[in-house]
Amino acid sequence: MYGFEAMTFNVNGGFLEAIVRGYRAGLLTAADYNNLCQCETLDDIKLHLSATDYGPYLANEPSPLHTATIVEKCTQKLVDEYNFMLTQVSEPLSTFLEYITYGHMIDNVVLIVTGCLHERDVHELLEKCHPLGMFDSIATLAVAQNMRELYKLVLVDTPLAPYFSECITSEDLDDMNIEIMRNTLYKAYLEDFYKLCKGIGGATAELMCDLLSFEADWRAVNITVNSIGTELTRDDRRKLYSNFGLLYPYGHEELAVCEDFDAVRGAVEKYPPYQAIFAKLSFGESQMLDKAFYEEEVKRLTLVFEQQFHYAVFFAYMKLREQETRNLMWISECVAQNQKARIHDGIVIIF
Length: 351
Prior knowledge:
- By secondary structure, the chain is mainly alpha-helical.
- Helices cover 64% and strands 0% of the residues.
- It folds into three domains: 16-88 and 325-350, Orthogonal Bundle (Topoisomerase I, Chain A, domain 4); 90-200, V-type ATP synthase subunit C fold; 203-309.
- The mean pLDDT is 90.
């Protein structure tokens, strides 16, 4: 334990750390998931959730219920909790909490730009955006034709502005360029967040740098798997990897030249923490890779709560709630589409 930090942390952070540990106690348990998996209709799911923290959010929803409604209400609960925490904090925790939402901002920008490219209605796209990633000028993203316009017209006044320095080109936006933009922005964001956590120091730096390194490595593996068989060159691929993490730099050199999933597996399995992830997958099986990484991430996030006097609990709680929302969306879809045989394929149990 970091002595001085433990003595002073509670002055500004003690109240909120207690609040977030209270929120964490409301996460669904394995018993809850077992009960939810027995549900026959979405109204059954609502009935079970009425006894959990989601009860007040679903209480006034009429039948028939839709999956989108359940996901929207679960997300609304997380947004309300986040906004409450944000109103109670001082620096540097307020900046740390704001950084947690930048990933959603990047996803929202990509969602709207991609939707407009395929001539989707802007209002319909805005409804699909994550509420934690909204900013004032988001609706005007529709007018941009290339990266330079996107930056000049819209993003220059948002927190994402510094991350665009590597993205600004005059090339027209197409699906490939947008995906490269997403990964370039994420790379810059994760490196910036890593630097912020290092600056905070203490247990926050130790735990957050480990969590962010895991996320950076996961993204590197995903970029590699998704770019196999595309026109993305090895150098382009290498540029999208973050400059930190367990795989940096030697693992990145190997990933950049991988031509199939088993080559990716061979490159990453050399690192002991990732052996267990690939041990769950048979050779050539990349479909379940994301689930294996989600399970490992959840394990790491729950361990964060074992220590005190640090900011990583806020990051871990937000991530665990988002995983819970994904679980509920999967269960609801399986029930709604009468695919209950597949219900366990997509659930990552948290506690």
